Amino acid sequence: MPPLNGKIVTVVLFIAVLLGVLYCYISQSYRVVLSFEERFKASDKEARPPQEVVVTLSRHELHLVSQDYLRYKQPSIVQGRTDVVTVTPWLAPVVWEGTFNPGLLDTIYRPKNITVAVTVFAVGKYIMFLKNFLETAEQHFFVGFRVHFYVFTDRPNEVPQIKMAAGRQVTVMSVPSSNRWQEISARRMEIIQTLIEQKLENYCDYIFCLDVDSKFHGRWGTESLGGLVAVIHPGYYRDERSRFPYERRPASRAYVAHGEGDFYYCGGAFGGLLQEVHLLARTCRENFEADAKVGIEAAWQEESHLNRYMWINKPSKVLSPEYLWQDFKSRNSEVQIIRFSGVVKNYADIRPN
Ligand SMILES: *[C@@H]1O[C@H](CO)[C@@H](O)[C@H](O)[C@H]1NC(C)=O
């Protein structure tokens, strides 16, 4: 019967096509697996330091769990800050007062039992700022979270005793004194890199590197956490980028050409996940040393190298100038709260040169 024959032919053809598609799919994925394995073998041969392999991202950054009992103000999708930009062109949040719910964020991060490391350099007379820095940090910096301050100083005997809340502590690390503040600044990246490798791995989750000649005035907490975190410099945030004090000599590894650069970031505050800050510190140190070999010192030392790094490696979170203001600067209207601020000082009194 012709109609039945037709049906059988159709079914056979259909199965044949199905098998064909299946074969193509399997051989395709086989090829993908092969090439992936080849690539894996190739990268195996390169000597890589183990620090880069450790990835704990998922525990901290990628999975944000709230609590179902939590009640809080409804977030709006159409109303918010209109006087400032709250997201970068690469879609990283810019943290301003009014863009986040502190209670919600703390609830999300508390069960993660995170430990935040802080590095602070109190070399020479800069030790005079340490007491105020630590005391105000106890009042405002990650209150209720585990924080470990690492104080690098050439005057360990002068480190003040500060009463710390539970889960928070200070470790004093000795460093040699230096005759030039530029050198102190330069060695910071190397010291941060070494600290992460030797002490912090498998212990801390995040790290912030902060200037000691500053103090806290308002909350600085979980809203600042991210992979790579940069702070907008308070002195240039309203300026054209042609006015940013980037390193402009092409011979320097910190070079940023005219027409390049997003923002001008502070050298006095940066941070993020351990692995990210490790890579930043290592890269800036290598670039700094390469510059030194050809006799170049970048315009603003490590700040210049940091700005070059952040131009290529975009920060995943940007903190507004609320997170590093300067006491001598009058507050602009968009700055609704000052959280951390550089204290007024006389450089002639404290810098060795
Ligand atoms: C939190 O972390 C610290 C340090 O890693 C650890 O000693 C402590 O047991 C942890 N607490 C909980 C509840 O997991």
From TrEMBL:
UDP-N-acetyl-alpha-D-galactosamine binds at residues 121-123, 126, 211-213. Mn(2+) binds at residues 211, 213. It is a single-pass type II membrane protein. Binds 1 Mn(2+) ion per subunit. The active site is at 303 (nucleophile). Keywords: Glycosyltransferase, Manganese, Membrane, Metal-binding, Signal-anchor, Transferase, Transmembrane, Transmembrane helix. The keyword rRNA-binding does not apply. Pfam families: Glyco_transf_6 (PF03414). GO terms for biological process: carbohydrate metabolic process. GO terms for molecular function: hexosyltransferase activity; metal ion binding. Its main location: membrane. This is Globoside alpha-1,3-N-acetylgalactosaminyltransferase 1-like. It comes from Stegastes partitus (bicolor damselfish). The lineage of its organism: Eukaryota, Metazoa, Chordata, Craniata, Vertebrata.
